């Protein structure tokens, strides 16, 4: 949360923010040049999916906020993961190699995901709600509402914001080359994600890495596991979500009536031009942080968008400056990115959520 289209859109908006800065530096140009290369941009866009790639497993226990691994990374776990990923990105002796540039691009995308979630999650959870008890039916109900809220936001950015000029292509976010297996997925990305995950959460890494590479240096870059199938699962999920086959739609609707067999892939997107504008808060209704963090807010999605993209762009510049400046101390950057993606706060997590005013969405 937000949806995959929104994360793609926010990434492009952050790049545009750097292009339009009044006082541009060579760091802005360096980042722009990095993303002008399709190969690196693809790695960055895959990074922008963030921990959500672990939500596309077809069989998993029901949770209100995705799979166990995805939930853990959003609920503070990304702080440790990003710290290790930043160490890996800064450890290269030559930052201009394809391997180093691909890993840095993926890191920038992953950071954009966490920052976007930290800004949008409080707004979305306040208006779409969250379960008060651990029951499976209630978890399924609120997960469905969370996803519908995401897809409503996706439709807004894709079809209405800036007069629908944004062009989205799912294929551009999936950095596979030819088929599946270790030969079909970018090795630098796998090494960055799986190697970092193994360093901080080895028990989770063990579940998604089925076979390691033949030697320690290629243990994760040449591994075989869930991530190699993620391209297939993500593509299949979004085909189901957008299907126009009437028979298949009826089967999906029948399955959705039984909350005990709930799956994310069964929650369909609204029709392309369907939109609930009320929950986007264009009318500037009062809302508060669902974790009870002091302050009254009137932000709409556009307000949050502007704040979010500016912060993403500024953090990218800081990291790029560290690359050229060979800075060894980057605690100032870690403080900005090591936050809870559900609340945007260092201390409050998902268990702190207590205030909501859910609007039930139906399309």
Task: Give a short synopsis of this structure.
This protein has twelve helices and four strands, in the order ααααααααββααββαα. The protein has about 375 residues and is mostly helical.
Question: Please, could you describe this protein's structure?
Answer:
This protein is mainly alpha-helical. It is built from twelve helices and four strands. It has helices spanning 4-20, 26-36, 38-49, 68-90, 98-128, 136-160, 187-200, 202-208, 226-241, 246-256, 301-325, 331-337, and strands at 209-211, 224-225, 287-288, 296-297. The longest helix is centred in the N-terminal third of the chain and has 31 residues, at 98-128. The model is unreliable at 178-183 (pLDDT under 50).
Strand and helix map with partners:
Layout: H1 4-20, H2 26-36, H3 38-49, H4 68-90, H5 98-128, H6 136-160, H7 187-200, H8 202-208, E1 209-211, E2 224-225, H9 226-241, H10 246-256, E3 287-288, E4 296-297, H11 301-325, H12 331-337
